[in-house]
Structures
1.
Amino acid sequence: MNKTKEISLTDQEYSGIKSIADNFGLSITEFLSRLSSQQLLVIDPESKEDQLDLEEALLILKEAKKTGEKPMSWSDFEAELDNNEISVCSL
C-alpha cells in the first residue's frame, strides 16, 4: 500500500497547480500522479520555441531543395540584417 505524503504550498502555488490541472480536466492529485509517472511532461517554453524554429527551418530547407531554390548563405543573411539595422549575437 502506498503511503501518502503531505506538501506545503503557498496560495499562489496551489492556485497555479490547480489551474494547470483544471486545463487537463484533472484533480490536483491526478495531475501530480500523472506528472510523477511521466504520463505528463513539463517542457520549458523556450526549448519548445527553439524546437519549433528548427522544425520550421528544416521544412524551409526541404522545400527549397524540392524547388531547386538555393538557401540564403549566412553572410547574405548577416548583410540583410545589417541593412535592416538588426544585429545577430553569436555564442
2.
Amino acid sequence: MKNDSVKLEIMEVTGVLDTSILQQLVEESLTEGHNHMKRLIEDYDSGTNRFDQAGEALFVCRMNGKIVGVGGINQDPNKGVGIGRLRRVYVLSAYRRHGIGRRLTEVVLERAKKHYRTIVLRTYNPAAITLYQSLGFHEVLDEDQVTHELKL
C-alpha cells in the first residue's frame, strides 16, 4: 500500500450490481468456511437484500481495478430505528493485512453515521474481532444475533 502505483478505490454500488463480479470473493470465502459472501449474492439476486433501503449502502473495494473486497450497512431488522448492521464485509486473503479491511469498514461507518446512532454486527472470526475492536466496537454478551456494537 505504500507504493504510489497502488491505487485503492472504495466505491458505493449504485444502480444494479452485476453480482458475477464478486465471484472470486464468493469462491475464496467458501473455501475458508464462510457462507456470508454466498448469502450476499443469493440475497442480492433474489431482491431480499440489495442494500437499497433508507440509510443502507453496499461498497466495493478495488485495488488497481481488481475487486478485492466488499462490505455494507443495513437497517437492523431486529433492533429498530437508529440501529444499523454492518454486513457482508470480506477482503480477499492476498490483500489482507494491508489496511484494506480497516479502510473499507471506515468508509461504511462514515456513511452509517448519517443514519444510525449504533452499529451492530455478528462475527466469531478472531481476525475480524480484532479489527472491529480496534475501530471501537465492544463485545455484546447477552444477544444471539449480535456479538459487537459501536455507539456513533
